[in-house]
Amino acid sequence: MCLGQNSAHHAVHYLNSQLRSLYENSVECVKHAGSGLKPLERVRYDFALAEFHVGARQQTKFALKDDMMFSAVFGKPRLEFICNHEAILYLKIKEGHFNSEIAKADSSAFVPNRSRHVKLHDMEVAFRVSFDVQGIRGYATKIGNGFHVIQLMVLNFQGARLVSKVNAGDREGIQFYMRKYLDYLYHTSHHILFSLPDFDDDRLDMIIDYSLESHINRTLDTEIHEVFGVSVEEINRSLSSQWLKAIMDVADGADRNSICLAEYSSTWTTIGKRSDIQFHIKFGAPRVRVLCKCEAVLYFRIEELLVSEGHDFTVTPKHTYSDWEIAVVVDLTEKVGGSFKHVEIDMTTLRFCEHFSKFHGFDLTLDFATMIKTTVVKFITEYYAVVLETTHFHEIHTIDISRPPMTPEPGPWGRRGVMQGEIIMGTDMGHYDFIQVVSEQSIIEHFKVLWHLSRDSTAEYSKVLGKWSYSEDFKASFGALKIRYLSDEKVIVWIQLDEGTLKPLKGSTHFNFSDWSIAFEVKLKMVDQAELSKSWFTRFKESFAWKHHGSEEHRTFKHLVLDFTTSEFVYDLSKFEGLYLANRSAVENVRGAVHYLKDYYFRELIQYGHHVLQSVPIWKRGSNPPPTGLTDVTFQIYSKTSCTRHSHVSQHYDIVLILLGMTGFRPLPSGHLEYSTEWFTKHRGTVTHGTVCLSSKVFLEKRLLILLSRVNATTTIVPFFPGGESSGFVTLFDDHEGSEWDLALTTSARHPRKWTHGCNWKLESNHQWRHTDKWSYKHKGSIVDEHNGVYTIECQAKNYLRLPTTINHGSLDIVMGGKIDINLGFKGASTRWASEAVAEWSVTLSMVSPRGGSGLTIEVKGNTKPKFETSQVHGDASIEKLIDLKALHKLVVVDLDDLVTELRQLFGGVWEHCFPGMQAYSLSNPVFNSNGDILFELRPYVPPSQVIAPRPSHASSSRSTSSALVDGTSAGDRPVGPKKTKSILRRIGEGTAYAGQSIGDVIKDAFEGNPDDGVKETSSVHISTTPGSRSSTEIITRATSGGSVTETTKRVITTTTHTADHTPAIVPFTSTAQSATPNGGGKTTPKAEVKAGGKANGGTGVTLVDPVKQF
Length: 1111
Hints:
Blueprint: H1 8-33, E1 51-54, E2 70-74, E3 78-81, E4 86-99, E5 117-139, E6 147-155, E7 161-162, H2 168-187, E8 192-194, E9 226-227, E10 230-231, H3 232-251, H4 256-259, E11 263-265, E12 277-283, E13 287-290, E14 295-309, E15 319-337, E16 340-352, H5 367-390, E17 395-400, H6 421-426, E18 434-438, H7 440-454, H8 460-463, E19 467-470, E20 474-478, E21 482-486, E22 490-502, E23 511-528, H9 534-540, H10 544-550, E24 555-576, H11 585-607, E25 612-619, E26 630-638, E27 656-663, E28 690-694, H12 696-714, E29 717-720, E30 730-731, E31 744-747, E32 762-763, E33 767-779, E34 789-802, E35 811-828, E36 832-848, E37 857-862, E38 869-874, H13 879-882, H14 885-891, H15 897-907, E39 921-928, E40 934-940, H16 984-990, H17 999-1007, E41 1016-1024, E42 1032-1041, E43 1044-1050, E44 1054-1058, E45 1064-1068, E46 1090-1092, H18 1107-1110
Antiparallel strand pairs: 1-2, 2-4, 3-4, 4-5, 5-6, 5-7, 6-8, 9-10, 11-12, 12-14, 13-14, 14-15, 15-16, 16-17, 18-27, 18-28, 19-20, 20-22, 21-22, 22-23, 23-24, 24-25, 26-27, 28-40, 29-31, 30-31, 32-33, 33-34, 34-35, 35-36, 36-37, 36-38, 39-40, 41-42, 42-43, 43-46, 44-45
């Protein structure tokens, strides 16, 4: 053997020689036994490589060949090797046939019909088979040289795959019978062959690398198109993408490690014996051809090889070579780490493969040229491989295995948006008064709304989001912007280019593109009002934020914006569909697109204020802000783990944007808010916008408990001596003959001094209020001895307050109650009596999340006017004679009016402390966490007039008895008579649909019954609705009146918002010029443009609007 060299060629010859010898032995046995089928079972294996027959189940072993299901006479078999794991087994059929009725082959009743035979003649069938080389270690004194190993090659016939390009009609039959033959060969042990013997005493390992002897047979289907679940095409595209990025880094002056995939100089190496001869390589895009699931050929394309004398590559090179391709065989591995799966090249296995390499323009007769070739190959295999591994370019493809699914899965909030578990128990505000968490989904949805509106807008500020051009050099139509939060207060912004054309920075030929997604890393920034453009400020005056705060001199705004001036192109996260990345001209096309977007398009977005994400009203110093009014605000990106442009947080942990605020002009705490738990979870099929949290100090302690302490004051009875008071008390003992005591009862709230001390709740197991006043009066000297004695009065108040940390169907129920106990008594020498009056009360204050998104409603249920019940404990004194009970009933009232008013103003309607762009949020699903902070879920604000109530379930036959209509009229109030249904466009435009009806229900109703105004209409409708996004409805109406036909198309721009309680709220893009009240009131005058014969989009709402004025 050629020791020290690859002995694969010799091994293949040795293996095929064994097959040839075994085959010749079978042929000789066949000749010896004579023609015809062989009757002896014990010798049939001797013929295996020469002949094989398959009979029907009902046939005997003495049947004729022509009666067989399959019969073949074989030629000499042979092996060709693909790699070190798989080979091709060629089996030549000299003559024979197979029966095409293979489905009946296993039936015992089936008799083969010779007319269904398919003749086989001089056909070579190839199977791809895997193999293992296993050694048998032994020792024999007669062999000598110590221990020896007999190498066996074991072919996996049972897993063989047909790779011959056989006629489609014959393929199934050939594959069926040949698999039986391979199984037969396996049982005859012909799948085991001996590898080259190695019994000598030189102690040198024999090198057998079949991969370097690999052959490409174009007539066989041997190509592997997938490895580790990734297509080879995708891997090569990933390699081309990395190469293209390296090309761009060259122009940007990046370091040698960043550009090594594109260029490399020998001056950076120690390769080569002559220091005066140096080379510079310009690489093309690398590619792989997979040999098997474990090995591949990696091709390094050398576009240009410049050989110079000395280290100065600026001078004309001495020799130039081009279009070389150096092939190396490598092992492929799969590595899973964290959130990613990598397909990697094991660079330690890299071997140069001569016969797959190409050296154009190379003259073997020149010693100098031979030295260059040898040096470059050595550089690739010994030095460059290490460089690529060091710079992680050996990771040829990366799969993000932790990306969340497109449809969000439900989390601990539950299917109805209920906060539970860790969110309630684990959220920690640190030392901040205010937190608002904004999800990525909310920002994406915000841009999606703007993009939908831009599609039909004529206003420049809106159109720029759908279409934009820069002179004749760049024109494109855009999709909606998308973002991903990163750590360090940054985001990735994707600019979606649906289609367009651009002029490269170098060259004059325009390039057409489509479906590009270009990523930029952009910093977030908090700016003052004065830093934004005047153009945007003009429109901002029409926003919800300005209408609630803009006219107040003591308030200003801070805006969270995308600082596009800091944008950095992120090639790794960009997508250039249809661009051939393995070409250097692609670089200029990519550079051109990035240039026009960064230098010109982003200026337009800033000019029109599309970079503004959130607007926060701030109370100025010297003002008197409400308890929840923010006096300072900052922001941060919040996540459990760090997230950069090269990574992202696992789907198990959301990365979110948090606005952090302070009230009362207290300074912002230093440092970041530490991670405690997630602040919200996703709901199936809905957009989760975020969470609001007010600290226990700001809301619970400074507002809620203080206002609720007034309930303690109004339900606590105390005795006192009335002075100049004329009302607000109840006198005692007025009707008692023996009264010597001028005393009265009042509440702590009415007492001239008691309320100044407060009636504050005390936190024990729950919040509690306990108060007792016990007075006694001893009287002597009365003429009537029965009047002498001790008079007593004892007043007790026992109140409780329960703040829930769970939500009942979107409602937070604050339960409070108490017991008022009044005891009167007298103890004299001869007389004794005692009477008692008791009143118990209980009320529930509920913060309810209504359907839609119009903010919380506040409800009070229970006994707010407690009644006293009396009992005579002993003696003959009746309490009715001691106290005026009617006056006492009027005295005690559970008064929550101030609290309800404040809660409605704070949490009902528009959420007034943060605004998304020109629109507004509302709150829902309130709950207290374990620290006493109150949390809410964010929703887009929807005026109450535009929220579609749920339609009552009823049979179609009783539709006329629908209990409630949008106009408030019940079906029973309507006059009885033939139904007169309004036209479809009028019903949608005027909002006269049934409460809770979808657009489909409205259309169905419009098609039924008699039309109004003597006009007959027929409509064709196309509807496309996506939860959490805008509906697209096309309504074309043909109206016939007086013999004339008019075709009209109207556009309804609406949205369907599936809220956290899974209630569809139809949200028209109404004009922001409406007068919205804190309770969500206000009336909108919808406007719509109607064009005959025009094309329009529609929606599932009931209001026609002008989409341009919305934003």
